[in-house]
Amino acid sequence: MKIRSEAKVGLIGIATLVLLIWGINYLKGRNILNSTYTLHAFYEDSGGLENSSSVLMKGMKIGYIDNIELQPGLALPVHVVLHVEKHYPVNIGSTAILFSADLLGSRAVRIESSGKDAYMQHNDTILAYSEADMIASLTAQVMPVMEQIGDLSESLDSVVHKLDKLIESEATSEALLDLAEISASLSASLKPGGALHESFNNLESFSSMLESQEDEFESMAGHLNSISESIDSAGIDRIAEELIAASGAFTQLMEQLNSGKGSMGKLFYSDTLYVQLQNLVSNLDSLIIDLNENPKDYVHFSLFGK
Asked: Where are the beta strands (DSSP E) in the chain?
């Protein structure tokens, strides 16, 4: 059967049209040869999301955005229609996250699976929320740093200005001159013949002398150890105990004297002995006086024995 030329032209035109439609959709990210099912998501802000933007799962493209509608008056006014290829089922409870796909700010939707066994059906509504885009996030992080840098710059300017004034002041000039003089004096002292140079030499000599007398120091330390051991063996502990005991006895004696107890206490605090001694002294005085005045009453002397 011979095909007419008009039919050939028509078939070629239809094929060209189909290829054109398929090519346009392919360029938009759509594959009209794969069947899809529809999911609905609602956002507070589209963030620059466009039709034909990609729908991703685990980094792989599983669909595309078919339509974006604004529905004023709703809490989440941006209605987004997602077309997902049927051989990529989405678990119930999964989330459609609006995020930045690249540094240029292109937006896409990423499906975070819930892991449940049941799957969403055609025209179901999926949970949705938006992530801050990269530029906004970077701006939010960089702006405080830039503000701090600005404050630091102002502080540095203020410090530099104060340093300029400080350097230009007479007190600073005098202090710098004094420091220069001190530096020069130190340099002169450290040179051969200077005070510090001689002091360091003396210290080195003293250190050398100590090193040369190291054996004598060790011998001296040995003698000291021997003396210490001799003192220990001499019964220092026993002598200390006897001294402590004697101190206790002396303390007891003083307590008796202070309280008037015991023989010594009575001797110190009783007036009987004092009176008796006074009477004895008085009697001795009387006896001596009488003996001087009347010696004959006490001594009998005779040449003839009578």
From this structure: 36-43, 54-57, 60-70, 78-85, 95-100, 107-112, 124-125, 127-130
Q: Is 40 exposed, middle or buried (0-12, 13-18, 19+ CB in 10 A)?
A: middle
pLDDT digits (tens, 9 = 90+) for 167-209: 777 677 777 777 888 887 778 777 777 777 777 777 777 777 7
Q: What 3-state class would DSSP assign to 12? A: helix
* Max Cα–Cα distance, the chain, nearest Å: 217
111 Cα distance to chain centroid: 44
Q: pTM of the entire structure?
A: 0.40
**C-beta atoms surrounding 223 within 10 Å:** 9
Burial, 94: exposed, middle or buried (Cβ in 10 Å; 0-12, 13-18, 19+)?
buried
Q: Which residues contact 81 (CB under 8 A, 6 or more apart)?
A: 38, 39, 40, 65, 66, 67, 68, 69
Taking the domains of the chain in order of start, what are their residue ranges?
1-33, 34-131, 137-167, 237-306
State both tokens at 213.
């007398």
Residues 6+ away with beta carbon under 8 Å from 109: 41, 49, 53, 54, 55, 56, 65, 80, 82, 96, 97, 98, 99
Q: Which residues pair with 95 in a beta bridge?
A: 112, 127
CA distance 110 to 114: 13
